[in-house]
Design goal:
Radius of gyration: 17 Å
Strand order of the largest sheet: 1-2
Shape: elongated
Helix content: 55-70%
Largest sheet: 2 strands, antiparallel
Distance between the termini: 10 Å
Order of helices and strands: HHHHEEH
Oligomer: single chain
Number of helices: 5
Strand content: 5-15%
Structural class: mainly alpha
């Protein structure tokens, strides 16, 4: 296999570590699904997420910060209230999709040899 392609994929995996870690946790998956199922897609408050996931407010806040740092969700303020919602650009998810597509292509090339 081409070492340049392997190095490129290794870099892509390294750049995707944060999002893979963020979505690899079952608690964060539960929070993601809760946000997806929200009637109002403009955002949810920590208290709402905590009540729907049966998690403590501090736990939800902690996991939201990880998802936010990974680029999966964003936060907006309305006065003293914080609302969490999906990043509509989807850049983090798109980067992960491109990495996995690249890996699949290289795996298929290797399997054909």
């Amino acid at each position: 296999m081409n070492h340049e392609e392997m190095n490129k994929l290794a870099n892509e995996f390294e750049n995707s570590t944060e999002i893979l870690t963020a979505i690899g946790n079952d608690t964060r998956q539960k929070i993601i699904l809760t946000l997806m199922n929200a009637e109002d897609q403009s955002g949810m408050r920590v208290e709402e997420i905590a009540s729907k996931t049966f998690l403590s407010r501090p736990a939800v806040s902690h996991h939201l910060q990880i998802l936010k740092h990974a680029g999966i969700i964003k936060m907006r303020k309305e006065g003293t209230k914080n609302f969490y919602y999906f990043d509509d650009t989807g850049d983090a998810i798109e980067q992960l999709i491109q990495t996995l597509t690249h890996a699949k292509r290289l795996i298929n090339e290797t399997a054909r040899k």
